[in-house]
Amino acid sequence: MSEDKDLKDEMKKLKEELQGLKEQLREMSEGLEHKRKGIYIDVNEKLSDYLGDVMEGVAEGIRGELKRSIFISPHHGEIKIISEEKERPEETARTDPAQAAAIMSALGHEHRLKVLDELMSGGKYISELQNSLPEITSSTLSSHLDILQEAGLVVQERVRGRYLITIPGRMAYKMANAITKQRDKQIEQRADLGE
């Protein structure tokens, strides 16, 4: 009988050991799954708090950058940041036809509209634009950017060299899309009427 008891005790120990190994295997599998999904760093609490603070600072910087980039406007070839507190100039009933023509002319090429579309998501360096728009050669892209800058739809940061879309650029891009959608709608309606 003592052999049966010893055998049962041994079996119990083996089952406990097997259960422990299964638990370790499960933990290792979970760790591998985390690593497959992205960067996985096992950090202590202090380091985790520090990293959280750093990430919050980075996020705050990005929010500030986005807030400023939305309100960038051309001003005599320089970048002028319009703060949120200042009053916006009121729109006048009449516009200068030459300025309106310059803006419409700048929108008159599909490559320039593609450039504006790329800049709608945020500032980009010329190399990023070239990678995003491989169908446009670098010299042609540079020429299109010059035209967009002259029309006041795009500005280039002096220090960093990034290209940013201005408020008028955003408005012009949205206007071009709205006009195109309206025209498509009219064509569709005419087709439905059999014209």
Please provide a brief summary of the model.
This protein is mostly helical and 195 residues long. The chain is built from 7 helices and 4 strands.
Can you characterise this structure?
- With 195 residues, the chain is mostly helical.
- Helix content is 66%, strand content 7%.
- The chain has 7 helices and 4 strands, in the order H-H-E-E-H-H-H-H-E-E-H.
- It is elongated, with a radius of gyration of 30 Å.
- It starts with a helix and ends with a helix.
- The mean pLDDT is 77.
CATH superfamily of the largest domain: Winged helix-like DNA-binding domain superfamily/Winged helix DNA-binding domain
Residue windows where pLDDT falls under 50 for at least 5 positions? none
Distance between the termini: 102 Å
Stated plainly, the CATH topology of the largest domain is called: Arc Repressor Mutant, subunit A
Strand arrangement in the largest pleated sheet: 1-2
Q: Helical proportion?
A: 55-70%
Given this structure, which CATH class of the largest domain is correct? Mainly Alpha
Number of helices: 7
Strand portion, in percent? 5-15%
Radius of gyration: 30 Å
- The number of strands is 4
Number of domains: 2
CATH architecture assignment of the largest domain: Orthogonal Bundle
Q: What's the mean pLDDT score?
A: 77
**What coarse outline follows from CA principal-axis ratios?**
elongated
